[in-house]
Automatic annotation (TrEMBL):
Signal sequence segment: 1-16
GO-annotated molecular function: ATP binding; phosphorelay sensor kinase activity
Organism classification: Bacteria, Pseudomonadati, Pseudomonadota, Betaproteobacteria, Burkholderiales
Keyword field: ATP-binding, Kinase, Nucleotide-binding, Phosphoprotein, Signal, Transferase, Two-component regulatory system
A Pfam match: Phosphonate-bd
Annotated protein name in UniProt: histidine kinase
Length: 606
């Protein structure tokens, strides 16, 4: 029932409050600005947002950043220089720039024109303006005083002291024009095309005023005294919805051509360069300040900083004394720490040597034990050879000219002797290499062949049959042939030792593989192990058995890790133990790749 009520209330229509689209407009001194620019944009926005009120917000250039943060408009119309301030302050994004019909390029649409009476023939170039009286619109107008300042600075002159008198009237028409016409000021600084517009409207007689300090090569049909910059910018603020921005952009760019039209824009390099040249905007900090001005502006902070510095100095003196006392204690502690560290390093080094010596000792025991069987086999084979050939022990080969012919048994004996001799050489070489801490280069090994070689060695000392489960196609691993054989040999012999007194004892070896690894599992059904005995297995470093290899599981684990494998022990359900060795499958070996089978001889007695 509560869910039904909830769904009922959610389904009720909700009366939406009328939405408002907020358009901020920087106050301009341009005649007819509302009629030529603001009203057409407002009408275009109303056509694409018929359900929203278009609210016009008037903002002042002097307080632009704070006004935008407080009013949070969606869009703004502002001069290019003011727009760049918003880019730095709130992240405004340009949509379009206004282009007058007198301009050819929207990026070069506005600038300043210096007007003077046509009768003033002494006013021609920029240099001739120096020392005159000038009237201008606003000190922050990009299409007025700022543009002319840039030209003055580029000419290597000081714009701050260029004119003998400079007055800002706010409006170019009629105030600045009237000031020049009356003769009260020598020149006037007005936006580009102002003179052409008032002449076209018949407000003054053509030719009565002229533009001085003409700039050659400007992309404008009007006469200009400065380089040209982007005109007004229509920009989106971060608070605007992306879909709203998209629709507003289409509406703005679709406005018909008239006195002004709107074009996409993104080139503000000229404005940025002008700001940097005049040390305004982001580069205002570059403006030189005198000591007296700094004192008047920052005296409270300077006094506060001086007091803070004094406190820091007193604190520094106190800290120095504390540091001096603590340093002595620290030196003593560090000396003791170094002594203990040296002692610990010495003990660690000795322990490492002892462990290495223990490992070498155990490997030597393996070699001594394993050499008995191949040497005995060599002796037996040689004895058979001697019996068959009638050669005495002192002369193992037939004398020249004797009629002695080797039979198959003799050939087998000689082959067996050669095989065992080679095995002895490999074992001895590996032990010597291990004692010298040399690492053998891993080779590709067929794990089936390695296991068969290990089983051949096991058969020489044990008659217990070992069940084997091998895949039809042997997986290939990377490792040292002798070490991998010793690993499997030791694990199988340990399993046999666990069941040798049990008439029903059983040992099995299974090889399986996945796409990433090869697993060799050795299982036995020996007596159940207690938790303590099982945990002790991983800590055993040497075998206490009188026969066998004498390798502890700790060394087996080390050999496994040296060959990139992992050793895992687990108790089987009921009784018995499983030892699993996992090797990574050799990714660079083909499944049917040949390996050196001489490393894994078959059991000669089988």
């Amino acid at each position: 029932m509560p869910c039904a009520l909830l769904l009922f209330f959610l389904s009720l229509p909700v009366s939406a409050e009328p939405q408002a689209l907020r358009l901020a407009v920087v106050e301009m001194t341009e005649p007819g600005f509302a009629a030529t620019t603001v009203n057409p944009i407002r009408k275009a926005l109303s056509s694409v947002f018929p359900s929203e009120d278009i609210v016009i917000l008037r903002v002042n250039s002097a307080t632009l950043e704070s006004s935008v943060r407080e009013l949070r408009p969606d869009f703004i119309i502002s001069p290019a220089a003011d727009f760049l301030r918003l880019v730095d302050a709130v992240g405004a994004h340009p949509i379009a720039t206004r282009k007058t019909r007198w301009a050819r390029d929207p990026h070069e649409s506005t600038g300043a024109a210096v007007i003077a009476l046509a009768s003033r023939t002494d006013i021609t170039t920029l240099k001739t303006l120096k020392g005159l009286k000038a009237a201008a619109t606003l000190p922050t107008s990009l299409d007025g005083w700022l543009a002319l300042r840039g030209e003055i600075e580029d000419a290597g002159m000081d714009s701050e002291n260029f004119f003998s008198k400079l007055r800002f009237f706010g409006y170019g028409m009629p105030h600045v024009v009237e000031a020049v016409l009356s003769g009260a000021y020598d020149v006037g600084v007005v936006p580009v095309c102002t003179l052409e517009r008032i002449e076209a409207k018949g407000l003054i007689e053509p030719g009565f005023l002229r533009v001085a300090a003409l700039k050659e090569g400007a992309e404008s049909l009007c006469r200009t005294s400065t380089r040209l910059y982007p005109d007004l910018i229509f920009a989106a603020l971060p608070s605007a919805d992306p879909e709203t921005v998209r629709s507003a952009t289409l509406a703005l760019l679709g406005l018909g051509a008239g006195e002004y039209s709107w074009y996409p824009t993104s080139d503000f390099h000229a404005v940025r360069a002008l700001e940097e040249r005049l040390h305004i905007g982001p580069w205002a900090y570059l403006e030189e300040m005198t000591p007296s001005a700094l004192w008047r502006r920052w005296r409270v902070w300077i006094l506060g900083a001086a007091g803070l510095i004094l406190l820091l100095l007193l604190s520094e003196l106190r800290l120095r004394e504390l540091v001096r006392r603590r340093t002595a204690d620290l030196r003593a502690a560090l000396a003791e720490r170094d002594r203990l560290a040296a002692s610990e390093e010495n003990v660690r080094s000795r322990l490492s040597r002892l462990e290495r010596m223990g490992a070498v000792s155990q490997l030597c025991a393996i070699v001594a034990h394993e050499l008995k069987q191949p040497v005995g086999a060599v002796i037996n084979y040689l004895a058979v050879a001697r019996l068959k050939t009638g050669i005495s022990a002192a002369s193992p080969l037939p004398a020249p000219g004797t009629e002695s012919q080797a039979d198959p048994v003799l050939i087998t004996a000689i082959d067996g002797a050669d095989m065992q001799a080679r095995r002895i050489a490999r074992i001895v070489d590996r032990v010597r290499g291990y004692a010298r801490a040399e690492k053998s280069r891993p080779v590709r090994l067929r794990i089936n062949d390695v296991l068969r070689s290990a089983l051949a060695g096991v058969k020489l000392s044990s008659s217990l049959p070992v069940e084997t489960h091998l895949p039809a196609r042997s997986p290939v691993i990377l490792g040292d042939a002798l070490e991998v054989e010793l690993i499997l040999h030791n694990l199988i012999k340990n399993a046999i030792e666990a069941v040798k007194d049990d008439p029903e004892g059983r040992v099995s070896v299974r090889i399986s593989s996945t796409e990433q690894e090869v697993t060799v599992a050795v299982d036995d059904n020996g007596k159940p192990l207690s938790d303590e005995a099982f945990s002790r297995l991983s800590r055993v470093s040497a075998s206490g058995k009188s026969d066998g290899l004498g390798l502890g599981l700790g060394i087996v684990r080390n050999l496994v890790e040296e060959n990139g494998g992992r050793l895992e022990l687990s108790r089987l359900p009921g009784r018995g133990l499983r030892a699993e060795v996992r090797f990574d499958l050799a990714s660079d070996a083909l499944p049917d790749e040949n390996t050196d089978k001489k490393s894994f001889p078959e059991d000669p007695t089988s």
